[in-house]
Queue: 2 jobs
Job 1
Amino acid sequence: MNSYMDLKMEEFDKLVEIMERVRKDCPWDEKQDHRSLMQYLLEETYEVIESIEQKDDDHLKEELGDLIIQILFHSIIAEERERFNLKDVLTSISEKLIRRHPHVFRSLEISGERDVLENWEKIKLNEGKKSALEGVPKTLPALLKASRIQSKASRVGFDWKEYKDVFKKVEEEILELKDAAEKNNNREKIEEELGDLLFSVVNLSRFLKINPEDALRKTINTFIKRFLIIEKEINSQGKELTDVSLEEMDKIWEKAKDM
């Protein structure tokens, strides 16, 4: 009977063989390059996130497979370009995991999660990083990027002491935005103050241990669900949305909260 590790390697080797065959014999796949595949890598990542949020294990299994295919595809293309291959990818990440976890693979003693994160940043700086803020992709969604930037700054000691201080900062930014909107017709100034407010709210979410991107996405989904209920109710009356007042729509919205 094969061990679990033997089974994993057998299935992985089979998948690599299939991908290499597809790359060679499929007219669409053979034309792809790193750039043309970017959109699919992003789509598959978001589909993985969606399946996690929906707690759909069957869908998650499928989407994780699609994501693995993207990784294999990029590795195969890189090997064709004689830059690196899949073995190099796996070796590199294995070495990084060992190097960044001295408390697991060596004798470093830590007292908790905070020590792990702070030590992680020290190791990255020793690896040649020029700034503690390096490593945050420029293309990340703005809310998530703000959270990652703040988290990195926090790991080297640049942070508020407690969440109450962040609440005060949020309140301060609200007043500054209100003042700019009421007294200033300068669009750039208003945009700046709005950005400061959003950045502070993201900071607050970090202190409350809430992912701002997840929180906003859930709120968007809730809004869509309730708005669809409004549409359905109004359409059942033989009317269009433009035929009813905001007050009427708001009444249906309130009812939708209980559904």
Job 2
Amino acid sequence: MKNQGTLITEQPNASVQAGSQKLRLRAIGLSLVIGILLLGLKFLTYRMTNSSAVLSDALESIVNVAAAAFASISIWMAAKPPDPDHPYGHGKIEYFSAGFEGALIMVAAAGIFYTGARHAIIPHELPNLEKGMLILLAASVINLMLGLFLIRTGRRTDSVALVADGHHILTDVYSSAAVLVGLLLVRLTGWLRLDGVIACIVGIQILITGGRLVRQSFSRLMDASDPELLTRIAKLLERHRRQDWVDIHQLRAWRAGAIVHIDLHLVLPSDLTLEAAHQEAKLVEALLIDAFVGNASVLVHMDPCAPEECPICGRPTCDQRSNHQATHTFWSRQRLSRSDAQRRQEELNNN
């Protein structure tokens, strides 16, 4: 490469971002409205039946409403463009939302344990059980449709907050299903203590879900490696690999809300002009940005090839070649994620 490569950067398409943002806000708004309505229904059911299992389900619905409200704020903030104080944007606020939701679920679980244990020790009559079960069944069906809709929309728009909210609502569906089965057994057997036992079982399941959300939130905030994302990028680069793309190393990718940030080192033939090298880097950028429907920010650092890289060079002929040309090297996630030091050591070992 006759001139040293430079960093190239590209920002996501604004119109695509605006469309995705509208979908996110509509979805979370729908979640909030339905959550409030179902919350009222479940507490009405609790007043009718005086069931601790139903109360456990209603308490989780309070968390649904609070989490949806916080998620709507986080989605709005995540869409704000980068500024001097936040050059990578505000997308990570969605991970705070997911962690907050997980913490709320764990708090709700503590309340459920208390109520369930008390009713298991001191059982009481459960009036209007049949009517209460029908209301709870209707609420569960609505929640099932809402949860699936949120997960699908969240994946479509790359919104962690929507996916987390959808999974939480599905957890609420599972909890409601367990409560319905338990209440049916109470109705059939007349064993009233079972109502409190069911509430405690639901509390354990809710506690596990909350802990999982908190752990995932911390992982994202700490920019933990995302093997699935890196594998997707590596397969894309391998599938569209060009002869002048000698090698790629130090591939890194992380999500911040809907945006995927990607940076990598692209090794190019040393005899390319800066203009030609720049065009190759732009092709890499365009490939990645298109793959993520505009929701990607890409930085490509260009490195000139060295003699040690001749064996993996895909060029049919090269006046600069000083080493033999070997067979095609597959660009796996592990290979492209290597650091520069690891890459050099691997080349030394192969030679």
